[in-house]
Amino acid sequence: MDKSTKHVVGLIGSFLIFAVGLFRIVTESLSSTPLFVAYIFAITGFIGVIANGVELGKRKKLNS
């Protein structure tokens, strides 16, 4: 698997984690997960999206 592909998969996964955490915080449904876990998901997902986006941007810039 190419490194760019790994970064894209990581970006998508981080975004999904961020989205689930944010959905839980905003709607306050999904009562099976505590609100604390939702904040952890939202924060770590956001950090993952930023980190993978930066790495993917660096890789695209080097290839062109």
Structure description:
With 64 residues, this protein is mainly α. The protein has one domain. Helix content is 84%, strand content 0%. It is elongated. The two termini are 20 Å apart.
Features:
single chain; 64 residues; mainly alpha; 2 helices; elongated
How would you summarize the topology of this molecule?
Blueprint: H1 3-27, H2 35-63
Helix pairs in contact: 1-2
Number of strands: 0
Largest sheet, strands/sense/barrel: none
Q: Averaging pLDDT over every residue, what do you get?
A: 88
Principal-axis shape: elongated
Q: What percentage of residues falls in helices of 4 or more residues? A: over 70%
Structural class: mainly alpha
The succession of helices and strands, N to C, reads HH
The portion of residues forming beta strands comes to under 5%
End-to-end Cα distance? 20 Å
Count of alpha/pi helices: 2
Uncertain residue ranges = none
Q: How many whole angstroms does the radius of gyration measure?
A: 14 Å
Summed up, what is this model?
Keywords: Membrane, Transmembrane, Transmembrane helix. It is built from two helices and no strands.
